[in-house]
Amino acid sequence: MGGGPRTFPGGLSKWQYKRMHEKLARQKQKGLLRHEKQLYLARLRSEIRASRLPAAATESPPDDGHGDGGGPTSSRAHIRALADRFLLPGAEDLWNDDDGPIHRTDRPLPPRRLVSGGRHQLRDSTRELPLGQPRAGRGGGMEPRLAAFNPRRDFQTTAAPWWWQWSSSYGIHSRTKEASLCFFGTKICYSVMPPFQVNQESGDASSMMPMIARGLASGRIAPSQLNEERLYSVAAGRFGRKWRPDSSDEDDKGISTAKKNLRFAKFGASSEEESEDDELEVRSAIRKKWSSAALRNCDMKKDRRALKSYEEENNDLTGSFRELREEIKNKEVLGVERRRYESRGESLFTNKRFDECGISPLTVKALTDAGYVQTTVVQETTIPMCLEGKDVLVKAKTGTGKSAAFLLPAIESVLNAMKSHTNHQVSPIFSLILCPTRELAIQLTAEANVLLKYYQGIGVQSLIGGTRFKLDQRRLETDPCQILVATPGRLLDHIENKSSFSVRLMGLKLLVLDEADHMLDLGFRTDVEKIVDSLPRQRQTLLFSATIPKEVRRVSQLVLKRDHVFVDTVGLGAVETPTKVEQLYLTVPHELHFHMVYRLLREHIDQEVDYKVIVFCTTAMVTEFMYIMLRDLKLNVREIHSRKPQLYRTRISEEFRDSSRLILVTSDVSTRGVNYPGVTLVIQVGVPSDREHYIHRLGRTGREGKSGKGILLLAPWEEYFLNEIHDLPVQKSNSPHIDEDMKQKVDGSIKIVDMSIKEAAYHAWLGYYNSIGDVGRDKTMLVDLANRFCKSIGLEKPPSLYRKTALKMGLKDVPGIRVRK
Ligand SMILES: Nc1ncnc2c1ncn2[C@@H]1O[C@H](COP(=O)(O)OP(=O)(O)OP(=O)(O)O)[C@@H](O)[C@H]1O
């Protein structure tokens, strides 16, 4: 299918090449997550170190918003930015389960010892935030905003010094003990440690750490001796090593000033044996530790950064926290507003008209021609932000007008860019829209064309798989466009194989990822990352979807600027599916699934004059099987799935869009984004691959605030899936009766389906459920279920698998699996 190169670097085939990149992407993703965590810890250490340094050094250059391009940011600014990102409303679900929630608590705060001084005032001011309390004990002294940022992780991955635990639990306190950090290597340990003070107030020496407490009690150690050097020595002894004071920092201006507050101690296996020559090495090692090495290679910044005074930071933070709280409040209000709209069953449309949104008059004219006058909620909320040039991540229910919400800013972006780009021979692509399926790309291109009706010289084109590569190239050259709608695979082919095309992308101003969660999940991520890598960094990015799971929130940071806005028109905790769609589920044994589909369709056709039904099947081959069977049962039915040629898919898609009294049997290619107006019923046969798939499939009905109906047809063993959608209003429905006549009729139609299609359907079914974690884990059960499915499609015995396939699926020696000789 399609054009494009056949061989790739290293003589790999397209699929080998793709698989190789998928593997690399998975590794990269893991690395990035790990890096983010390390970065957080590193910044934390850097923050603590920096807070001990005098305000000095150079001014940080301005940041480009991505945080890594504009030069070094101050550690404090970085932590603040991270906290800002993760404290946004709805960001509670951003964390791993291990991270623990960001608690909103009304509990009274524990009484706190008031200490004068800017730093402590800062802490007290941040405490006003209604977020998590810092933990007691290790890391318990962290600033609340940081504890809230990751309350359970704090210093767990850093080997905390033993005296840390001791000092907090045995009564020795230090005003700065939360800053104690120790980086233990296998041979050498450098620590950054604040001076200790004896808790004079408590005066109870025996309650202190036993060794020193005993020393104090017996008079061997005078309290005045209990300075850091003594403690280092004790600590070194504890590790079976000797300690010698490090004098090297005396020479270093920065370090010696810091020494007022900090001590560096080196515990070496044989510190005495080290020669004077080592001094220099030690000094430079300490400097390294001080700057980057101590951050375990995470802090790559070489320059010491200008540090603000505590007061400045204090004021800064108090201000930004106030703003943050204000913003959260506004967003919560927004969510409540949306829920109010829906609970009252009010229209999806707002009172705001498009001509009040700052959109160009010719676009408004085109909108009016298309019948768009009033904005929908998502359009009203996001268009102004997008026009301001902000990066936006948008979550809004299916069928609520997200397409226009990003197409309009895309057009405005082109209009703005064209004002300053007049002398190009071939116009750059100013707006790029990426979406997961060809049907959706074609639909978005058509919608954009409608909106561009009154513009001469501005064009939109699509780049999708399933068409000839050379034809694409010719089309792009002869009919240049400023807006491009593309599926990732084909776009990447063009980027990698046509340098002139990459040049056209260098002028890009706006990138949109429609169905962003799908675009950023593993299937597409590699391609999307490579595409994003080839785009200019100075651009605006918009992410839209009806579902934004927490992993996607995290990964979205890869493409969005740090200061992006998250708009959730659904609202936290609100139902994510359209309110006017009735959702039912039926549990029927496999043997009766096809009969039940026919029964449900007949019933619906009898009830709805202008019926328009979509039947979703698990795989392309099961779709094909279902289509042939229903066609034989004399239903007015069409099919779309990935095994069909693109021209056929496009034709059927258009036919279904414009018709009623039609049934479309389809696979996941129609799950997302495609807009078929007036769908009255959606039937999902078998478990969707995840909750998001369920929501998007269901969203093909009940669009534009209309009513609709969704039925999920499960086998009894598939009921586990109901847990995933337990928060959605899905009701159990009684199974309609299937009489003997109907059963025989359906059985007859099953029989006529070609054997090769049945075999392919069995293989596809096995592959699909094998890939679903919960089911695929128990191979014996899976094979047993597959064999039941096999019977339900009229196969006497299960078709054999290729040895390679069986091996790959982990099914080779599973009883019930036949392997081809
Ligand atoms: N302001 C508007 N006025 C009238 N009709 C609108 C308006 N905005 C969108 N629509 C119509 O609403 C329908 C759904 O819009 P759209 O396809 O953009 O939804 P969506 O939110 O992108 O859905 P999905 O999540 O499934 O992708 C379309 O038929 C579209 O023409």
Explain this structure to me?
- It is a single chain.
- This protein is 43% helix and 12% strand.
- The protein is α/β, with parallel strands linked by helices and 821 residues long.
- Helix 13 (402-420) crosses helix 14 and helix 26 (755-770) packs antiparallel against helix 28 (779-792).
- The relative contact order is 0.08.
- Residues 371-372, 374-376, 379, 396, 398-404, 546, 673, 675, 677, 699, 703-704 line the site of adenosine-5'-triphosphate.
- Adenosine-5'-triphosphate binds at residues 371-372, 374-376, 379, 396, 398-404, 546, 673, 675, 677, 699, 703-704.
- One of its GO terms (molecular function) is ATP binding.
- A motif (Q motif) lies at residues 352-380.
- Belongs to the DEAD box helicase family.
Give a concise summary:
The protein is of the alpha/beta class. Helix content is 43%, strand content 12%.
- Give the CATH architecture of one domain: 3-Layer(aba) Sandwich
Number of strands: 22
The chain-level structural class is alpha/beta
What is the CATH top level name of one domain?
Alpha Beta
Q: What small molecules does the structure contain?
A: adenosine-5'-triphosphate
**Tally of separate helices:** 29
Please name the CATH topology of one domain: Rossmann fold
How are strands sequenced across the largest beta sheet? Answer: 11-12-10-13-14-9-15
Average per-residue pLDDT, rounded, comes to: 72
**Could you give me the name of the CATH homologous superfamily of one domain?**
P-loop containing nucleotide triphosphate hydrolases
As a percent range, the share of strand residues is 5-15%
Shape type: globular
How helix-rich are the residues, as a percent range?
40-55%
End-to-end gap = 30 Å
Radius of gyration: 32 Å
Largest sheet properties: 7 strands, parallel
Taking pLDDT < 50 over at least 5 consecutive residues as the criterion, the unreliable ranges are 55-72, 92-217, 223-314
